[in-house]
Fold:
Amino acid sequence: MFDRDTEGVRIELRSLTKHYPGQPAPAVDNVTLDIPAGELVVFVGPSGCGKTTTMKMINRLVEPTSGEILIGGQDVLSLDPDQLRRHIGYAIQQVGLFPHQTIAQNIGLVPNLLGWPADRISARVDELLSLVNLEPSAFRDRYPRQLSGGQQQRVGVARALAADPPVMLMDEPFGATDPITREHLQNEFVKLQKQLRKTIIFVTHDFEEAIKLGDRIAVLREGSHIAQYDTPAAILADPADEYVASFIGQDATLKRLALMRVSEVSATGSPAGSGLPQVSADASLREALDIMIAHGADRCATPSGVLTYAALCEAVGTRAGEQEDVVSSER
Amino acid sequence: MSAETLAVGHSRTSGRTVGARHLITPVTICAVLVALYAWVGTLELDSIEQRSLNQAVILTKAVEHIQMTVAATTLVVIIAIPLGIAASRSRNRLITPVILTVGNLGQAVPSIGLLVLATFLMGVGFQTALVGLVAYAVLPVLRNTMVGVQQVDPALIEAARGMGMTRGQILRRVELKLAVPAILAGLRTALVLTVGVATLGAFVAAGGFGELIVNGLKLNRMPVTIVGGVLTACIAFFIDWLGGLAEDLLKPRGM
Structure:
């Protein structure tokens, strides 16, 4: 199959359509999309727009009415569905851990289906538990109901990663957790993905989450039509239409600032403190702005120099003091 | 987390080991049997009563009664569990009402009537009694198997399919495992029902404690009827107790 390589492979959707019998309009209408290898692409859209259906066609939990799906150049529709799914990681919002199996058995399920020897499975289980920050010796032999919601979600992600698939499908995997746990899981997941470079399709209706996690975002409307497909920065800077703009909300510029690091903006002057508020190099520009406002200052000190308000404006493509004629330098 | 762990630790000790509460039923049964023996000992039995109330006859009837119960329950397991699984599949939804109706009929039709009909077809004996017993006891197992499989969280089935388990693997490793408590509960009900209905075996010459009850009534010998009735009840309680133990020991861990 396509997973000789455990790093991500390219996914191509060609004129993918799903028309449920007896319904006037197709749930997914003629979607064509390229997902580059090793990227995390977020499908974002309102409930019922067909984003989950589109995702489920990739591992054939939903059979397409017409169209083509290629993973690593291989036609998915020609493969045995059960075999195919063993080579695609799958995580869902409800997690779906089996209550009668231990955490180790849950994580080892796909390797077990693939016929790995027992010692290789148990080594892999321990490796994955460590990867999702759960102590293997403490969690291996527990049962799912003995874990908190956040811990279960981590096990869900570990289970999806078990056989080291090049492709992962994730359907709002952090959706059912409280905001603090959610933020924590998202941060861990971003780090994890930097390390693993899988090709991931991530479905959510939360645009904040999409910006935070996605290398690219596909904003979908009714029938899974793609309203815009681009990097988070590009979508924020230049939404394709009203629909996309309404998804972003009122604070697009602040969201863009949140995407940029202090270290990415050239600082001026000497790094000497001179009483200016301090920000770290890996803080976001949004945090830097927050500090400036909090201190009533128009500049703050970074490890490499002084960051000014004007530099912030320049970073998002506007010039300080300019009231009209907002120029977008991106795209 | 410590509270959760505590709770689990507690349920494990009460669920996995035979505790004091498990001893109440057998102790009570023993006390009832001793009381029955002592009471019969105080009676002056005439020759008719002596012919029924002696060790050899009671042992034979006990063995017959238990044989009927075990044979009928085995058949019920073989028939009702696969039917229950078939009835639970969504692709069989057209035949599910048919299966359930047949199961309901078996319980709704009076057993004695069914035994008479079966006697016309098969003559008297052990096998005829089995027909009535099986018909009567299929429904609880069938229904509980169906409901037990259907109540498995759909998210688990979706996760299982998404990970590439085949339908057979999902049924064996997930659905049936999680339905075990419900199936065992149905089986326990079926066993207790069978012990009671097996007394009707007396009418088709299949033996069992029903014979003591029927003979006692026919010959107007109350002690014989009472001994038959009490012993049947003791077997029913004992089997119910065994069923309870089995439920505790066989339910999947982690639930």
Observations:
- The two ends of chain A are 37 Å apart (CA to CA).
- DSSP finds 14 helices and twelve strands in chain A.
